[in-house]
Amino acid sequence: MKANVKWTGGVSFEGRADSGHTVVMDGAPESGGQNKGSRPMELVLIGMGGCTAYDVVHILRKSRQEITDCVAEIEARRAETDPKVFTNIHIHFVVTGKNLDEKKVQHAIELSATKYCSASIMLGKTARITHDFELIESE
Fold first, then answer.
1. Mean pLDDT of the chain
2. How much is the average pLDDT of 74-97?
3. CA torsion angle for 44, 45, 51, 54 (degrees, to 10)?
4. What ranges does the record give for the region Disordered, renumbered to this chain (predicted)?
5. Class for the domain spanning 1-38
6. Mean pLDDT value of segment 17-26
7. Cis check: omega of the bond before 83, within 30 degrees of 0
8. 1-38 and 40-137: same fold?
9. Residue 87: its pLDDT value, please?
10. pTM of structure
11. Residue ranges per domain, the chain?
């Protein structure tokens, strides 16, 4: 996997990886930015959320659960001093579907957290990561 990040002026950068998609990163106005894109650490959280949500959906589909939606709501805290690594991350999954088995959803989340999601396993080296979930019955 390769990526490049190009400075586009001020505190703005454009990132591109092998897939060819572009991500704009920028700072807040108080740091000299123009708020044209996400902050890099926000993208780290979004990436982790995408990684774990992908796993959960994939595992639930393989276990023949009728899942219609999955949202990972993430809250994180960072260290007060540099390097301001994530110290606590909480992921709340909202899983929607028909006749979902609570134990299978719990198991899918645990498998993602302990075996499959490389992003959350990596972030778990500096942060305490917790999970919970709620099930919503779809019509």
1. 97
2. 98
3. -140
4. 18-37
5. mainly beta
6. 96
7. yes
8. no
9. 98
10. 0.92
11. 1-38, 40-137
CATH class entry, domain 40-137: alpha beta
Return the amino acid letter for 84.
K
Task: Of 93, 102, 3, 85, give the one whose Cα is nearest residue 50.
Answer: 93
Residues 6+ apart with CB under 8 A from 1: 17, 18
- 139: confidence class by pLDDT, cuts 50, 70, 90: confident
Phi and psi (nearest 5°) for 102? -55, -40
Mean pLDDT of the region 49-62: 98
**How many Cβ atoms from other residues are within 10 Å of residue 126's Cβ?**
14
**62-90: b or e for each residue (b if 16 or more CB lie within 10 Å)?**
eeebebeebebebebeeeeeeeeebeebe
Q: How far apart are CA 97 and CA 67, in angstroms?
A: 4
pLDDT > 90? residue 48: yes
Measure the CA–CA gap between 50 and 137, rounded to whole angstroms.
22
Locate 2 and state its tokens. Answer: 């390769």
